[in-house]
Amino acid sequence: MVPVKRSDSYDVIDFTNEKYSSRFCIFFFNSTLEDYFSELAILPPFRFSDDGFAVTAAEPWIREKTSVIAQYLQSYTNLHAGKVNELIFIDLFAGNGLYSLGARNELFAAPPLLALSLDLPFTRYIFCASSQEQLNILKIRVNKYFRGKNVLLLLGKPEELIDSLSHYVPANQQGLKASVFCLADSFSFDLNFEAVQKLSELQFNFLIPFCFALNDKLNYRFYLRDSRPRFASYLTKEGAYLVERGVGNNRTFYKRLVQQYQTNMLALGYNLSLSTHKADSGLMELPSYHIGFFSKEFSTQSIRQTVEAASHTQFELFQ
User: Fold this and answer.
1) Phi–psi pair at 256, nearest 5 degrees
2) Which has the closest alpha carbon to 159: 136, 138, 184?
3) Which helix (DSSP H) or strand (DSSP E) does residue 99 occupy?
4) Is 191:183 a contact under the CB 8 Å cutoff?
5) What number is the average pLDDT over the span 66-81?
6) Separation of first and last alpha carbons in the chain
7) Percent of the chain surpassing pLDDT 90
8) Residue range 230-248: average pLDDT?
C-alpha cells in the first residue's frame, strides 16, 4: 500500500522517489536513446512493451501524424539551441502516452512519450490530462522509461490550468529567457479558444493538428446544431457563425473552420504556417488534414523549412 501523508491543501502520496498530489504530480525521469528519423537526426522508434494498462486505439495515419509532430519538435529546438535558458514542452491533451494499432499488437508512443524519447534539449515537460485514470497510467509509463527527466503532470482541462501553467512557466526577464512549445492535439473541439487567448499572453508557441471526427454521422450539421456550444467555444461564437454561413458539406465546413482559426490566431498577433497531410481515416473522412504552427517569437517559415525538407509536406504560409 502506498503511504499517504496529509497536507493542509491536499493529500500527498509518497512513491519511491516521486510525489503525487490530488492537484498535480511532479516527477523527474531520465533516459538516453538512439536516433529516430535519419533526415533530422531524431532517433529510431523506441519500443514500448505491453504493460496491461489502457492504451488509445489508433488508425495507421496517427503514426504518421506523430512523426510530423516529432519533426516540428526537432526544428523548433534547433532554432533555440543556445538562445534560451529554459525550453519547455507542454502537451495539453497528453492522455495515457501510448497508441495501439489493432488488438494491442503494435504499440507506439503518443506525443508525451515520443517527446521524452527524442534526444532534444527540453529542460522541462508538462503533461496535462482531464482524466485522473489516464494521468495515473502516464505517470507509471514515464516513471518506467524516463526516470530522471524533469516532468510535471497536471490534472485538468486547459481552461482549468491557466493559473498552474502560468506558475510553472517562468516569465522572461533580463538574463532569463524561456520558450514554450505547446501541443494541443485533442481530436475534438475540447480546446476552448478563451484558454488559448490566455495562454497566448504567456507567449506560448502552439502546434495544433486540426483533427476531429468528421463523417456521415458526425457531420457538419451535428457540430453546427447538436454540438453548437462546444463548437462555438472552440472557434468563438462569432467564428462559428462565420463558418456556418453557406456551408453545405463536410469539406467546405473543414476548410472554413481552419481558415477561421487562422484568422483568430492572427488577431492575437501570431505568425502562422499550415501544413497539409494525407488523411486515411474512417473517423475523419477527408482526403487531407492540416496542422497549424503559431508563433510570436519568430517567423514560422524557419520552422517550416526544416520540417518540409524532412517530410516533403505541402505548406501554405500566412505571415
Assistant:
1) -70, -35
2) 184
3) strand 98-101
4) no
5) 91
6) 56
7) 66
8) 95
* CA-closest candidate to residue 297, choices 226, 167, 205: 205
Nearest in space to 95 (alpha carbons), one of 124, 70, 66: 66
In the numeric block, which cell numbers belong to residue 66?
A: 506523430
What is the grid cell recorded at 125?
A: 515537460
Task: Give the Cα separation of 16 and 38 in Å (integer).
Answer: 37
Domains of the chain: 23-318 (3.40.50.150)
| Residue 135 CA: distances (Å) to CA of 126, 183, 292 | 12, 17, 26
**40 φψ region: left (φ > 0), alpha (ψ -120 to 50), beta (else):** alpha
Q: Hey, how many other C-beta atoms are within 10 angstroms of the C-beta on 36?
A: 21
Cell matching residue 262: 487562422
Res 180: pLDDT: 96
Query: What's the CA gap between 25 and 12, in Å, rounded?
Result: 9
Q: Bridge-partner residues for 207, per DSSP?
A: 183, 293
Convert the pLDDT of each residue in 110-150 to its tens digit.
999 999 999 899 999 999 999 999 999 999 999 999 999 99
pLDDT of residue 116: 96
Question: What b/e readout covers 63-85, taking b as 16+ CB neighbours within 10 angstroms?
Answer: eebbbbbbbbbbbbbebbeeebe
**Cell numbers given for 217:** 454521422
Q: 85 near 199, Cβ under 8 Å? A: no
Instruction: Say how far apart CA 127 and CA 101 lie, in whole Å.
Output: 23
* Pick from 55, 149, 160: nearest CA to 106: 55
User: Residue 191's closest CA among 155, 236, 225?
Assistant: 236
Q: What number is the average pLDDT over the span 91-102?
A: 94
Q: Which of 206, 133, 195 is nearest to 164 (CA)?
A: 195
User: Taking residues 213-237, what's their average pLDDT?
Assistant: 96
